[in-house]
Design a protein that fits this description.
Domain Glycosyltransferase family 28 N-terminal: 4-139
Helix content: 40-55%
Distance between the termini: 16 Å
Pfam families: EryCIII-like_C, Glyco_transf_28
Shape: globular
CATH class of the largest domain: Alpha Beta
CATH superfamily of the largest domain: Glycogen Phosphorylase B
Radius of gyration: 21 Å
CATH topology of the largest domain: Rossmann fold
Protein name: Glycosyltransferase
GO molecular function: hexosyltransferase activity; UDP-glycosyltransferase activity
Largest sheet: 7 strands, parallel
Order of helices and strands: EHEHEHHHHHEHEHEEHEHEEHEHEHHHH
Strand content: 5-15%
Domain Erythromycin biosynthesis protein CIII-like C-terminal: 294-407
Strand order of the largest sheet: 3-2-1-4-5-6-7
Structural class: alpha/beta
Length: 423
């Protein structure tokens, strides 16, 4: 069977879907991954078919609308920021549709909600593949509400329904506009697809560990918390002699990186803050500049090593702790590595991951980016490196490593496609 996977977002957002694609390929399927043009080589080097979504995601994420969306630190700001992103999202719909032509099933990220309607038109199964739990439950609040006061099970359920409406609000107009332009009318049954993804032919699969967010009992049997979809990153990748030398000549360092999050105008200031915090906590550090969240200053002390990027699966297990922005993928990589975490959230679900890491006892209390100081970061690093936290992180890492999330998700999709039941 040919299975089309629709992804959105940055490299960290795309990577789990490549892992899923590889598991599907191993199960005997042909897999086509639709992702931003930036990731053509990333997809193809893993032996998967690539379909380009036009646009440079590194430029898209630096627009005012995208920056506002990434920094939205409460549900109302999330709603407003998603509204501003609608114009950018419209341009993706045609590519998403074309990526599914000839497919036997569509697997789609919640940011590519058109996948449901494409599958409906093509009379093939649709699988919602989400990097975070979003099916309504009474057990815990939706991620964008997770850091708010707890008001009971009814409130929890309501927050998920609100979050689903916000996600649908971000996609509905662009999908409807494209569909009318292409077919002269809105899609059939044009309501939120997320509410419908709970049957055998319309399942939901979640890339999240059951040891991080246990599967709620009030979910449909066709909503699956499979475990994380981890990619064995760049098997041919080799560390530089300089990096190896730095690692070998001292105690395990602390990793600090903010991925695609960060203000280039504040990069030098943030880097100086991080270096000061590492000095105050008595730790060596490896700083990843990413997309200009940090910078390579002229006067770097010998206890600090600066690089642009490095596969998390290789580096994180070699670290004493990891300090990052709290993206879902980076958080998962830190937990899998079995080392303590310190999260510095800026917006959206990052606050939820920060709180959850602290609740699980595998990291320090998160520090909102707006309130970050060298002293606070030093204190958090020292707390994260206490024996209790290190032991808990190691234990959780071993449990997560025992899950085979991508393989489990691939089996669910294979079963769904085998039924050949249309959406």
């Amino acid at each position: 069977m040919l299975i089309s996977i629709l992804t959105t977002g940055t490299r960290g957002d795309t990577q789990p879907y490549i892992a899923l694609g590889l598991a599907l390929q191993k199960a005997g399927h042909q897999v086509r991954v639709a992702a931003f043009e930036n990731y053509e080589s990333f997809v193809k080097e893993h032996g998967l078919e690539f379909y380009p979504i036009k646009g440079d995601v590194s430029k898209v994420t630096t627009t005012d609308s995208s920056i506002a969306a990434m920094k939205a630190d409460n549900p109302l700001k999330v709603l407003f920021s998603f509204n501003k992103l609608k114009a950018l999202v419209f341009d993706l719909q045609k590519d998403f549709f074309n990526a599914c032509v000839g497919a036997d099933a569509v697997v789609y990220h919640p940011g590519a909600a058109i996948g449901y309607f494409i599958a409906q038109r093509l009379k093939i199964p649709a699988i919602l593949a989400t990097p975070f739990p979003m099916t309504p439950t009474r057990d815990y609040p939706a991620l964008i509400f997770y850091n708010t006061p707890r008001l009971g099970k009814t409130f929890n359920l309501a927050t998920h329904k609100i979050f689903g409406k916000i996600m649908w609000f971000a996609s509905s107009s662009p999908v409807k506009q494209y569909w009318k332009q292409e077919f002269g009318h809105a899609p059939e049954n044009f309501t939120s697809p997320f509410d419908k993804q709970n049957t055998q032919s319309l399942p939901t699969i979640v890339s999240c560990s059951n040891f991080v967010f246990p599967r709620p009992n009030d979910w449909s049997e066709h909503v699956y918390n499979t475990g994380y979809w981890f990619l064995e990153e760049e098997a041919a990748w080799k560390p530089s002699p300089a990096l190896l030398n730095f690692l070998e000549k001292g105690a395990p360092p602390v990793y600090v990186g903010f991925g695609s999050i960060g203000d280039p105008a504040l990069a030098a200031q943030t880097t100086a803050l991080v270096i000061k915090a590492l000095k105050l906590s008595g730790q060596r550090g490896i700083l990843a500049t990413g997309w200009s969240g940090l910078s390579n200053l002229a006067d770097i002390p010998p206890e600090i090593f600066i690089l642009e990027s490095v596969p998390h699966s290789w580096l994180f297990p070699r670290m004493a702790a990891v300090v990052h922005h709290g993206g879902a993928g980076t958080t998962a990589a830190g937990l899998w590595a079995g080392v303590p975490s310190v999260l510095i959230p800026s917006g959206n679900d990052q606050f939820a991951w920060g709180r959850r890491v602290f609740e699980l006892g595998v990291g320090a209390k998160p520090i909102p980016r707006k309130k970050l100081t060298a002293e606070k970061l030093a204190e958090a690093i020292s707390f994260a490196l206490t024996k209790e936290i290190k032991d808990a992180a190691k234990e959780l890492g071993m449990k997560i490593q025992g899950e085979n999330g991508a393989e489990a998700a691939a089996q669910i999709i294979s079963n769904c496609v085998a039924q050949k039941t249309p959406a």
